[in-house]
Every structure is written in C-alpha cells, then in structure tokens.
Amino acid sequence: MEQRFLDHIGEGADDLYLRAVSQPLSFKIEQALNLLRLWEPSDGYYLAYSGGKDSGAILRLAQMACVKYEAWYNVTTLDSPELVRFVKNQGSAIHWNRTSESLLTKVVSVKGPPTRLNRWCCAIYKEMGGYGRVKILGVRAEESRTRKGNWKQVSYHRKTGKPIICPVLYWTDADIWSFHAQEKLPYCELYDQGFERLGCIGCPMSGAYGLVRDFNRWPRYEKLWKRAVIAHWDKWHGVPTRTGTVRWSDGWEDGEAFWRWWKSRKKKPNSNAGSLRQMELPGTGDDQSWDWIGEDSEDDGECQGQSLFV
Ligand code: SF4
C-alpha cells in the first residue's frame, strides 16, 4: 500500500517531520517494507552495513520485505576489534569491502588528520562501494540537524541519480531498540557497555570526551593516531601546497604540538578562523579541498531528497 501524506500538503517541514517521527513502530515497519518493495531494482539493492544497530535494522527489514539485496561492510581500518568481530560473526551474509591503504597511512601520505568539517575519510572508507547501484542506508534524521534537513526516505545520488532508500529515516533510538528486541536481532556488545554510537576510534566526530573515552579503552589506537599525525607533519612541514600556499599543518611548531591540538578538539591558536573550533576549520591545503569530498559520497549534503513519504 502506498503511503502518501498528500492530505497534509501545506504543513511545514518541521510539522511533517514530527508527524513522521511520532508514528507507532508498527506503522513505520509497514511503511519501510512498502518502500523497499516499491523501489526494488532488478539487480537487487546494495545495502550499506556498518555493524551498528541501525544497520542491523535495515538488514532485517530487507529480509522481511523479501527483496533482493547484498549487504556490504566497508573496512574503515579503525573500527573497534569488538565491532569487527561482531561483523565477522554474521558470516557470509555480509560482504567485506577493503581498500589497499589504511586510513592512517593516508593521513600520513597525503590527507592529514580529518576534522569534523573535513571528513575526507568517510567518502573513502565509510561510503565506498555500490557506485551506480540503488542503495539502502541506515541514516536516521534524529542523529543530526544536517541529516534531518538533507535526507528524505528516497534521495538520489547527486552524480549517478540512482535512488538511495532510507527506510529508518524517521525511526527513533527507541524504535530501533524495540525492533531489535521484537526481532531478536544480534548487536555488538559495545552497546551494553555504554556506547551509543559505533564508529572509527579517534573519529573527529567524537568530541573531546568521546575521544578520551575511546583512547582510554583502546590505547593502541591512540599511539597509531599520534604516530600518523606527527608523521604527516614531518613529511609535509615547509612544503607549500600545489597552489603555493602555506600548508595548514605548518601552523604548529612541531608534530607533537600539531598532535596535541588535533587531540584537544580546541580552536586553532592564532587562527584567522577567529572563534571557530578545530572541527570548523576549512581545509586550506591542496589536499584538503572540500570539493574532493563526495567523489562517491552519500554523506550529508551529497544527496538530494525528493519526497518525504512514499
Ligand atoms: S567515521 Fe570518522 S574517522 Fe571513520 S571514516 Fe568517517 S569521519 Fe573518518
């Protein structure tokens, strides 16, 4: 059955969003199944599976909808051992997508450490694969204002024009966990240890508190990040960018200071960026170009939503 909210045309986006989020879980499940059946491509979906709770939900929905799909896990090289083990335990149902170079090797060789607004690594390590195919993503509007503003249940890849289906876009955390309980879905043990979201260890999206927590738990990853950030500074110190400008990492006297700043999540000292914090600094080197992000990215802002409800 098609679900259209045509009778609510005239409502503001916020009203529609609140209406969508406040639907009972049973309605959301039915709607998600309809959505997946309606948009099923002849070659099957590419289902982006990260091992997190939202991925578990979309995987189950695809099974319940009886649509054709392949679930792919992108190896970020910085996922926690617990998460990697959990994905491994899902067996052959999940395909693994690996890159030739680890994220931290790329930090050293070209890109430098990612920041909140220059998350170059997501496009390479989180969102690779499935180019030109119809995808299922576990994006949820509740997770950020950007997601709420940019994503729709059916969005389109900005380059290929292929549909991207987000069946749990308007699901809340409580919906996801209720669905897990209802369907007896397996989930990564880290959720029972206080982790609400799982991602790369050292991710710039984790604030200062999250970073300290992660590095305390997985100290080896802190050492690896530190080595990479300092090695990047050593390699590129004094080398101008392709356009002849000073490299952003040259704003620190040595690699140790660069590392301390990145780890602190604080604003850059003596920065032209004024009160902007680290995570808001634009990339200023030739290898830090914003334009580069989204080469094959469905990250926030890369997709154009077309409809709220289908
Ligand atoms: S989750 Fe964080 S560290 Fe991992 S690829 Fe995305 S931005 Fe980079």
Instruction: Choose one word for the global shape.
Output: globular
Low-confidence residue ranges: 1-9, 272-310
Mind summarizing the main beta sheet?
Answer: 7 strands, mixed
Total helical elements: 11
Could you give the distance between the termini? 10 Å
| SSE succession | HHEHEHEHHEHEEHHHHE
The CATH topology name of the largest domain reads: Rossmann fold
Structural class given helices, strands, pairing?
A: alpha/beta
Report the average pLDDT across residues.
84
CATH superfamily of the largest domain: HUPs
Class of the largest domain in CATH? Alpha Beta
> Strand tally, please?
7
Fraction of residues in H or I helices: 25-40%
Domain count: the total is 2
Instruction: Report the radius of gyration as a whole number of Å.
Output: 21 Å
Cross-sheet strand order for the largest sheet: 3-2-1-4-6-5-7
Strand content: 5-15%
Bound molecules: iron/sulfur cluster
